[in-house]
């Protein structure tokens, strides 16, 4: 019996998933051993030379334990919340007394910074106590609350400790007393969506309908007009007329231009947009709201068919950190904030839970191995906020229209949203690997990452162990552990990049096409202990082309092998990467180089390169001469870990 | 005997040149009959819907004849000066009582706005009388003075009327009393060069060494340090520390980062740069200063070999309206201000006078027929400030990094520098056609424009008549009128775009290569009355390629025929112009279409176009299919005179 028609899959709890492989384990270790302590030091302003954070200090001031002045962005509090969420995920993987002690103290501090009425936001408590809830459009109070709620749920789920849940419940009580549809409350909703999905997480822990209803109010009220809530509050603030070019205050910047069901294209700030869409899926699933999920499907199509880079990057404009128009995907001025690709994973994961289509897991994979991982250096100590697909340092340094582009990762940012967002994702990676559909007795493997899990199916524990050198190697071995023989389905994602997947069960060849459904090979049988599945996903180097409406990429190819998008870098190929081209039939070979970039598979092949001309003329009618030239491509995520230089994902096709 | 080794050629006086052809005459008529009255109305705020100018009103306030408040940019006065200069050139071509009466009244008003000490700048007189000469870096007082001096010389040369010369001499006296190397004076020089070349023009009229010496001071003092003059005056103004990203106040923005002889690359604001270089040539020529001219040669090479668009556009960055780095020439974000290409003509003309190399006249031609003419609509009523080489309207409308790009010409601009600059150039076009070298008995024809002139050579009047349908037709007929048979040289420019020029004199074929020197065919003979030269410059359509260091243009060609650079426009070729490509051997044909865009020669041929794909996938591994497709190109200068749409100069080469 299927109770919820919109809910099909349930992700396996993070605590039940062990990651143990050569690719991700070291990154999770990096998060735990390097990034969490580094970020904690940053929050405490203990990193010499880094931009100040002042986050902990702000909480101390709010708690009455410091006399300093508030410093930082209006959303500075969220840095602590994101750190705490990462800690929660990390503790879910493995408890750690020392870390828990630090986190508990931080939670105590948060508690002391909370006002007696439940209000909790150090910016307003300390710097502008008279301006609480007067500017929902810009002021991030609900955004910070959302991140704190997410942290609370993660920490509670990992440790069972109730205190931070109590703090955020009290905060939500307060929010609910101020905002809502009832007479006497403000009908406001956040300029930066985030609390919607957080409230849905909290609701799952508390079962308190208040949490569900508040989320519903924020989503349903969004974009209602006339009058528009942002205009009402702006008038009350006596806000001056803005420059008409100041699109920051246009409603679409924060997806408040229309009621959510009427939004057909992804507009405005890309992180805001995808946090909102994620919350919409959660709410739609809970309320079985088909019209709301249909809006999400339409937005999904728009983002992934018209507005997404091959790296899973989204938001092609630095100005407003926003989407622009269909197919406007410049490579050298891609904004493609790391956080936006992370938000894409959140959204895709939620869509996958209700749609059971590998397309969503494919996008998770695309973002994860490319546009997200590029945000962090191999040593975990420096970060990209912006992830362009093409960089010429000399131009970047001299063109103001590229001011957001960096070609060296930075140690921290004044607005430090991406580094902690990246670490919370990597720490919680386990939750994106498996899910199950109990009534159908299905276990899904979405991502091929070595390790194991246990899924309870029909009252029995099913152990799943993956062994693989993915993403470098095409082979994935899955082993089943089970006490009693039992019939159920193992659904293996068949990535869209793979043209000829092969499957054997206990050395018996399976006809993949006959068992494929929406991108999953569904192997239904009576499984017994130690049954083995061998999945082979052949990974030839593919030349990928973009839809010709993406004008920037016409006449170009990108190299992809398996889930990994490649780029060419100056360190391997010399200057003027644009002078390099590949023939449609170029022979390309791959090799794993264990000493390069901490071990990556590289692609090499014979390309062409424009011969330098002898004339000093800028323009001439002679033909351009080409010479054969070795081309070497490295995984995009690993660029800018050597000497700064040019980089390009897209290569001219000759 | 050659008195001045650095001065070789002398341009023929504007009054002696008649333009009478089917291409330029109508444009000069447009300037006289439409643009001058339109601009006069604009200066008087008499154009409904146009942005306010307030220029005349500002002069009236300064003269004590109005009680309004100053409105406009700090350099608003220069709009009147540029208009007056245009009027001067127009009157040099043909006197006009009514126009002269209006101009005389404007001059009277200017005179009344001048203070008794000679000071003349309405912005400071009216709005900030206490701030005169306190911010030479930013405040344009010398820039406005320069334009007024240029206007004065033009008006005086056309009419012989002295009044405006007296006004500007009094102004220069005042400037000379404030600025200069002598003790007690400020050692300042203009942030926006312009007065240097103007003073050299004035010096030629007045013979007053004061004018020469002031120019010399401004050029020699430029960039001297430490301390730098701009720092001295900033300190006196108690200027606050600027944002380190505020490059407007960096010294290279106004070419004051180094003494002029040490400037090896063209930096900063492109119009400022080229006005400075023009003044440098004038001064070097007058003073026979070889090291100064050598600096100009080096800068010329940098601009024309590394930093110039195929249209003669310069200044590739909207931010600071500036040069960036070598070969950074993006097409869609080209700034290429109309004024900068005009300045390129000024500079090239001066270089030509001392270097006698067709390269300079070639650049004049390139700028004139392409990047300059594109600045004005065919009806003369709307203007481009910025002249990009590629435009996609939907993207332009949604990307902030393209905010300066327009795809529809505007009726006027708040900062209205380009329209009057364009009209003064077209009105004075006659001066760029011919020059003479008296001691060598040479008459040069630099530009092929129908009409006639009279050159005094060795005491004899030599009449030269050109008949041609240039730039559409390859044939130029030159006829000599002379009273007595006489030996001299007619030097005809052989444009670099022309591979096989042919010359006949009185039907006798001349071996062009044997008489060619630095791009000129020098025909030396005893000329008699009615001698005829037939010059044929074959104009096949050429596929032009850019130096591969111009990464934006790798794999692309531009179409050029004769001096005209072509573009493809959406009106002729449909949407997504980037999907169009040309084969290296595409057969291209030309036809004059008299009803299209007021009569232009178009290029048509068979190209390829990417077939729209059926899949809705953004990225795929299938090949791209091409279909044959007619391509039609129009002259770049004539784009955006129909329905707004896409445009591209560079086309992919398949």
TrEMBL record, chains A, B:
Domain of life: Bacteria
Domain Non-reducing end beta-L-arabinofuranosidase-like GH127 catalytic: 17-430
Family annotation (InterPro entries): 6-hairpin_glycosidase_sf, 6hp_glycosidase-like_sf, Beta-AFase-like, Beta-AFase-like_GH127_C, Beta-AFase-like_GH127_cat, Beta-AFase-like_GH127_middle
GO biological process, one term: carbohydrate metabolic process
Chain ranges of the Non-reducing end beta-L-arabinofuranosidase-like GH127 middle domain: 443-539
Domain Non-reducing end beta-L-arabinofuranosidase-like GH127 C-terminal positions: 541-652
Alphabetized SUPFAM superfamilies for the sequence: Six-hairpin glycosidases (SSF48208)
PANTHER family to which the protein is assigned, alphabetical: DUF1680 DOMAIN PROTEIN (AFU_ORTHOLOGUE AFUA_1G08910)
Protein name per Swiss-Prot or TrEMBL: Acetyl-CoA carboxylase, biotin carboxylase
Species for this entry: Lederbergia lenta
């Amino acid at each position: 019996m299927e109770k919820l028609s919109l809910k099909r899959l349930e992700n396996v709890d993070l605590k039940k998933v062990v990651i143990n492989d050569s690719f991700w384990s070291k990154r999770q270790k990096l998060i735990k051993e390097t990034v969490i302590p580094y970020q904690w030091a940053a929050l405490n302003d203990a990193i010499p030379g880094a931009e100040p954070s002042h986050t902990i200090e702000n909480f101390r001031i709010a708690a009455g334990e410091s006399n300093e002045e508030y410093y930082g962005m209006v959303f500075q509090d969220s840095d602590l919340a994101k750190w705490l969420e990462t800690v929660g995920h990390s503790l879910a993987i493995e408890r750690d007394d020392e870390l828990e002690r630090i986190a508990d103290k931080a939670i105590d501090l948060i508690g002391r910074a909370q006002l007696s009425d439940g209000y909790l936001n150090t910016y307003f408590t300390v710097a502008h106590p008279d301006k609480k809830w007067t500017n929902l459009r810009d002021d991030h109070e609900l955004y910070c609350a959302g991140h704190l709620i997410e942290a609370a749920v993660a920490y509670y789920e990992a440790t069972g400790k109730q205190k931070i849940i109590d703090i955020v419940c009290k905060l939500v009580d307060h929010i609910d007393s101020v905002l809502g549809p009832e007479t006497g409350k403000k009908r406001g909703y956040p300029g930066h969506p985030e609390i919607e999905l957080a409230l849905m997480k909290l609701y799952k822990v508390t079962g308190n309908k208040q949490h569900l209803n508040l989320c519903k109010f924020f989503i349903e009220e969004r974009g209602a007009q006339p009058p528009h809530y942002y205009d009402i509050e702006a008038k009350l603030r006596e806000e001056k007329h803005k420059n008409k070019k100041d699109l920051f205050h246009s409603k679409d910047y924060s997806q408040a231009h229309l009621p959510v069901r009427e939004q057909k294209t992804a507009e405005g700030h890309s992180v805001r947009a995808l946090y909102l869409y994620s919350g919409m899926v959660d709410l739609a699933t809970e309320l079985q709201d088909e019209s709301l999920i249909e809006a999400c499907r339409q937005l999904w199509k728009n983002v992934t068919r018209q507005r997404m880079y091959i790296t899973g990057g989204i938001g092609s404009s630095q100005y407003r950190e926003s989407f622009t128009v269909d197919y406007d995907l410049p490579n050298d001025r891609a904004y493609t904030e790391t956080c936006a690709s992370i938000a894409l994973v959140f959204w895709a994961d939620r869509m996958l839970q209700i749609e059971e289509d590998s397309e969503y897991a494919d996008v998770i994979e695309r973002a994860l191995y490319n546009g997200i991982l590029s945000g962090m250096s191999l040593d975990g100590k420096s970060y990209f906020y912006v992830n362009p697909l093409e960089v010429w340092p000399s131009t970047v340094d001299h063109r103001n229209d590229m001011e957001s582009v960096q070609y060296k990762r930075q140690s921290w940012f004044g607005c430090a949203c991406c580094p902690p967002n990246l670490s919370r994702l990597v720490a919680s990676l386990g939750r994106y690997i498996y899910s199950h559909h109990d009534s159908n007795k299905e276990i899904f493997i979405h991502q091929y990452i070595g390790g194991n899990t246990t899924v309870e199916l029909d009252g029995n524990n099913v152990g799943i162990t993956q062994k693989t050198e993915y993403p470098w190697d095409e082979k994935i071995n899955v082993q089943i552990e089970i006490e009693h023989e039992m019939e159920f389905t193992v659904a293996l994602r068949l990535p869209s990049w793979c043209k000829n997947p092969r499957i054997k069960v206990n050395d018996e060849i399976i006809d993949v096409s006959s068992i494929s459904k929406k991108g999953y090979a569904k192997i239904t049988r009576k499984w017994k202990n130690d049954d083995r599945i061998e999945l082979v996903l052949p990974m030839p180097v593919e030349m990928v082309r973009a839809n010709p409406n993406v004008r920037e990429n016409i006449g170009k190819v990108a190299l992809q092998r398996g889930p990994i998008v490649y780029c060419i870098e100056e360190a391997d190929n010399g200057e003027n990467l644009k002078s390099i081209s590949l023939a449609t039939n170029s022979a390309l070979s791959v090799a794993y180089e264990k000493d390069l970039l901490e071990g990556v598979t590289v692609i090499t092949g014979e390309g062409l390169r424009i011969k330098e001309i002898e004339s000093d003329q800028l323009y001439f009618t002679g033909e351009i001469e080409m010479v054969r030239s070795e081309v070497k491509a490295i995984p995009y995520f690993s660029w800018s870990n050597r000497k700064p230089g040019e980089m390009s994902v897209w290569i001219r096709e000759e």
